[in-house]
Amino acid sequence: MAGCSLTVNPSEIVVRFGDPVSVNCSTSARYVTGMGWEAPFGGTGFERPPVVTWRVDKLEEWTPSPFCYATLDDGSQCTLRPVITIFKTPDFVSISVLDHSLIMQDTEYNNSTRTQYWLQCNIINVAPVQFLTVNWYKNNESIMAMSFNDTTTKTPVNESSILKINISREENVAEFRCEAELDFGPHGPKLYVTVGNPPPVYNWTCDGKNMLENTNSLNITRVKHNATCCPLTLTPSETVVTFGDPVSVNCSTSATDVEGMGWEAPFGGTGFEPPPVVTWRVEKLEEWTPSPFCYATLVDGSQCTVSPVITVYKIPDTVSIYPMNQSQMMEKHVHYNKHTRTLRGLQCNIINVAPVQFLTVNWYKNNESIMAMSFNDTTTKTPVNESLILKVNISREENVAEFRCEAELDFGPHGPKLYIMDTFDVLHILHQITLKMNPSEIVVRFGDPVSVNCSTSARYVTGMGWEAPFGGTGFKPPPVVTWRVDKLEEWTPSPFCYATLADGSRCTSHPVIIVYKTPDFVSVPDMARGPMVEGIGYNLKCDIYNVAPVQNLIVKWYRGNETVLTQTFNGSALTPVNTSSTLRISTQRDYNGLTFRCEAALHLGPKGPKFPPNVTSPPYTAVVLCKISTNLLHVSLSTKLINPSKSLTRTDSGKYTASENESDTIFTDSPSFTCKEHYEVTVNDKPQSICEPVGLPTPTLTWFKDGKQMVSPQRWKKNDSGKYLLNAHNTHGTAEHTLYLEILCNADSNPPSNIRWIYTAAENSNVTTEGHQKIISITKATSTNGGYYICVAENKAGRNTRFVRLKEMQVAALLDVICAVQILYAISEVKQSSIFSC
Hints:
Elements: E1 7-9, E2 12-16, E3 21-26, E4 32-38, E5 51-56, E6 67-72, E7 77-80, E8 83-87, E9 92-97, E10 114-126, E11 132-138, E12 141-147, E13 157-168, E14 176-183, E15 190-196, E16 205-206, E17 209-210, E18 233-235, E19 238-242, E20 247-252, E21 258-264, E22 277-282, E23 293-298, E24 303-306, E25 309-313, E26 318-323, H1 326-329, E27 341-353, E28 359-365, E29 368-374, E30 384-395, E31 400-410, E32 417-420, E33 427-430, E34 436-438, E35 441-445, E36 450-455, E37 461-467, E38 480-485, E39 496-501, E40 506-509, E41 512-516, E42 521-523, E43 532-533, E44 537-547, E45 553-559, E46 562-568, E47 577-586, E48 595-602, E49 614-616, E50 620-621, E51 624-625, E52 627-630, E53 635-637, E54 640-642, E55 656-658, E56 663-666, E57 669-672, E58 678-682, E59 694-696, E60 700-705, E61 708-709, E62 722-730, E63 733-750, E64 754-758, E65 765-770, E66 773-778, E67 787-795, E68 798-806, E69 815-823, E70 832-836
Parallel strand pairs: 2-8, 19-25, 35-41, 43-51, 58-63, 63-69
Antiparallel strand pairs: 1-3, 3-5, 4-6, 6-7, 9-10, 10-13, 11-12, 11-14, 14-15, 16-17, 18-20, 20-22, 21-23, 23-24, 26-27, 27-30, 28-29, 28-31, 31-32, 31-33, 34-36, 36-38, 37-39, 39-40, 42-44, 44-47, 45-46, 45-48, 48-49, 48-50, 52-56, 53-54, 53-55, 57-59, 60-61, 60-62, 62-63, 63-70, 64-67, 65-66, ...
């Protein structure tokens, strides 16, 4: 199908802003089903071809964008837009001299002397600027044309054109004019707005005031008589008054041609009164910018006015001084020399003062003026809040420096000088004071009493105290305050002493407190491998239980009375821990029968105990089987030589004598026990070597309970308490040992439980408490001690029980039944009844 055949008439149009406009759109095509105009104003809707018109009666849009569209038979659409230019002629065009003083310049002229000037042509409110041309004329002769390249701005703008001219002395008079032209080409009109060189502007002034305002046209027909300018006198002509105070000003005249006079004002106006005096009076001035004026009506009907200068003021409500950053006022813990100075920022606040233009703030250091600051705001007449910042350098040697700020309202010769200083807002710049701790470092046993004194000799301390979870003192007067705790049960106490200074700032100091606890016990467990063999390496382990702080722990190993190893620890824990130390030994035959022991000591430094607290393990006695190098030349039994390689039988018992030979013989030994008779283990613990026999070769160990052989359990149970028979056997013999095993029963609870036993009391039974354990001890048990022993744990969250049954076959044993409670740290708002793990 052929292209879109639309025609707009006119295709380009220039129209004045606000005038009517219309454009026809037509087509001769036969395949157009309809057409119309789309526009913000004047749109037509869908109409039948061949012609549709866009019409606006009053075009008030700077960038109209109407377009004509046609819908074709196939549903497609084509469009066409007219070019529309909206214009506005300038409101006015004027010429001014950029520097008027050059025109009056007194210069030596000669025939070639010329003076340079700059004239500016101002074109106000014209559109569009892209069609604007400014033409300059001198004595009606065109001398310059200037156009503008702004093609984007369609709305009215103000533009100017500058002409640089040279005027010779011979020209005497030269007339310049500028002409603003809107040239739209063939589609629009040519519009010219012309202005000549500006005519003189007449200024009629009296006492510096322009009486007739500026005008460039004045017709003087005749002079009737001479008269002075407005013949009025104000007393006082300038006055300064406090907001809310009374005020009055007299207006008088001595002229004879004054018909009447009066005051015009929002408050205190007088009406028209006869001369020579009229007074403006207000009893309570509550206006920040009063503007009364006195007027006089002359006999010729003219009128003149004069206004007093009135300044309304208000002194500040408060003047205060404070450091910009309180935390920065106190010097840090640094090394000072005599040249060290600290920079401070002080702020002086002046609240609710007016007018600020007359305000001066004076800063003083130790009553000596150091700075004055004023304000340049001449427009604000109502009260404002102002602040000024002073940066000061304070040396440490000054110790105390006193600063104050003073607000002054100075109104010059027509008003008072007002000084406002709040003497209570004097700031002391304080350096870091010294808080003395006695002792500054302290070492204390967990659970023991402790006290530390904090003192100061500073004079500007208003109060001091201790902050601590326990033993805090509250705010006390200086110079000494004491932190005291009767029973220190905190591993990481963090008390600090504070002092509040005269300026409200605070400094603090912390003592160094080390809380220690000696081990509950130290032990070297049996190696569980039987006796040692000469020349073989072994590890001895020292277990230290529940010691703090571990970093102060030193473990020493002794072989006999000889120190063989010293070990330190690098941990950082402050609470009790379990730790261990290992000694590696290579056994020698001399070690047989020697004792090994370890000593755990807390070395707490010069502030600690004179003799480091220590706990030593029970001795471990070494049993060493020796290798003997010998030359067995012959072996005899009762002086009878025998074959050394002969196998011996039970009938070969007797005393043998061996002579040396180059061979190694290992002596053998029958089984033996070096175990204790009483052991304690905890429920659910894994079985470990409690008692091991010694002998070579290593004996086979069998456990019996109640006459029955035991299978080694995976974990100890509560019913495993009782008497055990241990049988050790090797090729050289058999040994037996009897021991008593106690299974400790634990109960966890939160909050802690109260524990008690329910049982049938007897003379040979006794209940004792060890820590959180209650123990029943039965000595020389009889059949009367048989039965149930019930352990009860209770707290406010509930109750739980466990029991132990003592059978008749067990009564011959010494029985210790233990109920132990392990205290858990309480979790906030969580309560649970006792949970046994027996």
